Amino acid sequence: MLKNLKIVYLYKNKLFEEIPRVVEALNLDEIDLSENNFTRAIPDDFGKLKNLTSLTLFFNQLSGKIPDSIGRLPRLVNLKLFNNIFLGSLPPELGRYSMLERLWVSTNRLTGQLPEHLCDNGKLVEVITYENQLIGELPKSFGNYSSLELVKIYKNGFSGNIPSGLWTSSNLKMLMLSDNSFIGELSERLAWSLTRLEMNNNRFLGQIPQGVSFSKNLLVLMASNNLFNGTIPRDLSQLTILLLDRNQISGSLPSDINSWKSLNALNLSRNAIFGQIPEELGSLPSLIELDLSENQLSGLIPSKLGLLKLTSLNLSSNHLTGSIPSEFENDAYAYSFLNNSGLCADRPSQSLNLKNCSSHHQKLSKTYYQLIAFFFFF
Questions:
Q1: Is 185 exposed, middle or buried, given 0-12, 13-18 or 19+ CB atoms closer than 10 A?
Q2: Is 242 within 8 Å of 264 (Cβ atoms)?
Q3: What is the DSSP code (8-state) at residue 342?
Q4: How many other CB atoms are found less than 10 A from the CB of residue 121?
């Protein structure tokens, strides 16, 4: 009877201990044992299931090494093993003999490199390997095929350059590279289909290309804590999130910043940006998070900034002067203006830690008249 069994769906149960062997069910097409409490290793005889197209074992407590024989299954399309305790390297021949489309192995304890032949058959659509201990460079084949749509490989130990073709892969929608050790520059061209690019906490360098028009569909650009320099890119009208903090970016904030109508979050902190905060920043209707701290900004805070419905504001550690907008004179912005010795408030609360503007002006006036008197009598 088991010889004719094609599909096993036993997901979302309370099954536990080890997965039973399947030597009598060699014609299986699909196995889904996800969201149970299985422990120990994947049985070695799973590598004998020559008709298997989909193996789904996520959200268990499986451990040990993924059998190398899994990588030689000729019809394997989907391998979904995330949220387990798998150790060791991925099967080295994974993708070489099958039309593999989806590799989901995130949140395990995998080590070693991604298999060299992972993209060989040009069908790979999704690679999700985040939160492991994988190392080394990405396979060069990552840049040779246009099938990739989703690459989520953050929180590993990858290094080296991104294969040039990956930036422009014609179907790419999400590229999430954060928390690795990648180097090199951001391509001047990105895939038109790309909507989200995350590259925080790497070693990327050079200038961010001027005009994010290299991808008109890009909504999220997160490039914090790298070695980017140059000035802030223009033409960001489509972005909803822009994070460029902890880089080496200089220059002033663009005066045409009022064209960034879709922006929800802007973080440019810990750079070398100078000049004044443009009044146009206060006309962005969707902006709710703004962090310009630890730069070289000077001059007044535009009053229009108080019209924004900000849930988070940080302008600390700059060279700003004058009174803050009245809308910010409350405890919600207690730490937003620290280390700006020239700032004051008309009605400063104790938590704001700012001088009273009127007493500040009185002090200046008194000093002025004292100087006049000094010159008059002497």
A1: middle
A2: no
A3: E
A4: 17
pTM exceeding 0.85: yes
What pairing do the DSSP bridges indicate for beta strands 126-128 and 227-229?
Answer: unpaired
What are the tokens at 195? Answer: 């909507």
CA distance 366 to 169: 67
DSSP state of 181: E
Closest Cα partner for 134 from 157, 116, 117, 150?
Answer: 157
Q: Nearest-5° angle of CA 365, CA 306, CA 271?
A: 85
List phi, psi (to 5°) of 90: -70, 155
Strand partners, 312: 289
Residue found under tokens 């650009």 = 221
Q: What is the mean pLDDT of residues 343-360?
A: 85
Report the candidate in 217, 188, 185 with the shortest Cα–Cα distance to residue 199: 185
pLDDT value for 319:
98
Provide the pLDDT confidence category of residue 374 given band limits of 50, 70 and 90.
very low
For 29-67, letters b (16+ CB in 10 Å) and e give: ebbbbbbbebbebbeeebbebeebbbbbbbbbebbeebb
Segment (H or E) for 363: helix 357-377
Distance CA 41, CA 86 (A): 8
C-alpha to C-alpha distance for 277 and 297, rounded to whole angstroms = 7
**What's at 105, amino acid-wise?**
V
Name the β-bridge partners of 174.
150, 196
CB atoms within 10 A of CB 220: 18
Amino acid in position 151: V
Confidence class of residue 215 from pLDDT cuts 50, 70 and 90? low
**What's the token pair of residue 56?**
């789904």
